[in-house]
Amino acid sequence: ARGEAVYTTLDATLQRAAEHAVQRGLARLRDTGVQAALVALDPRTGQVLAMVGGRDYGASQFNRATAAYRQPGSAFKPIVALTALERTGDRAPAFTLASVVDDEPLRVETASGPWEPNDYDGEFRGPVTVREAMEQSLNVPFARIGLAVGPAQIAATARRLGITSALDAVPSLALGS
Length: 177
Hints:
Blueprint: H1 12-29, E1 38-41, E2 48-52, H2 77-85, E3 100-103, E4 108-110, E5 113-115, E6 126-129, H3 130-135, H4 139-149, H5 151-160
Helix pairs in contact: 2-4, 2-5
């Protein structure tokens, strides 16, 4: 018999806490068809400390933490920001942190109908700086920034950063569609 060694960054205590948190959260929903996933990372090293891929591994071995595709939503905003703030060659960036963008109603006609982004609270703040839009994760200013730099440029930045999933160059890409 040969001995094998397995090394992992999983923390047993955090893993148990993650499993418990998922079970507790799902129990509050009282819907047995709902699934959940959880990944706990060490932000300094990127090591995976705990991971739960679904409600019950015995019932479904599909790992929603690693295999389920989701829209990134606001997690995509840093890519939009990089596209907007990046200096290209000897060209100045399209925006700076002090650039002012309107947080006012926006309607964009698209092939699939009008797109009208809004913020989680349904409020509009008027003119805001790019920095404020980033700090508050404001959707409408990011939609405007995305339109200004162009969805194709945002997709190109994402590809350059290693994102390989399908990215449609549409206005809503700025908000992680």
